[in-house]
Design goal:
This protein is of the alpha/beta class. The chain has two domains: 118 residues, Response regulator (Rossmann fold), CATH 3.40.50; 94 residues, Orthogonal Bundle (Arc Repressor Mutant, subunit A), CATH 1.10.10. It has a five-stranded parallel sheet with strand order 2-1-3-4-5, sandwiched between helices. Helix 4 links the parallel strand 4 and strand 5.
Length: 227
Amino acid sequence: MHILVIEDNRDILANVLDYLQLKGYVTDCAEDGLSGLHLAATRHYDLIVLDVMLPAIDGFEVCRRLHQDARCETPIIMLTARDTLDDRLQGFAAGADDYLVKPFALSELVARIEAVLRRAGGRHKHVLEVGDLRYDLDTLHLSRAGKALKLNPVCHKLLALLMQKSPAVVRREVLEEALWGEDVPDSDSLRSHIHQLRQTIDKPFATPLLHTVHGIGLCLRVDENEA
């Protein structure tokens, strides 16, 4: 299970990361709202642990943008020292699945993570589908119209991002950041992987799913005019 922790208190962040890793979770982290929002919107996570009081934008706004703008269904546990009823209601209204008040025991956080993951099991998508294209995130099995397809690791990551955001357009810079972080290779690298992806998932089939929005980015969708 892959968990994103967004927390600006470095001591709390370090303790949470160490404990989650000890429990067998794979973790990423961010120390401000904008960085956390970017990671959550461009990468696949099973759950997000989100502090409310963050630099740049607060946790309520991060939660709202993920659910409303990025169409993200990843479950969220909010952390905060604010324990009034209005604060808790605001968190749930923004889309949080649970709400843990500081200070908290790390064992309780893990118990809540496990409970939220159990509740979200039917909602959280481990198998992505766009039209007749099917991609299992657990087994990495990819098929279209029942035919098994093979991709290189970078194309697998590119396809997962596009399928998670489908039918929305994903900007080229977002794709590059998700694939390579700050160490982006030459400008032809993304174009080359897009070409390989298109050759695999579209070329052998009658209708294309991968569409280029010139000057902006890519989207994966079923074109109703061609379906």
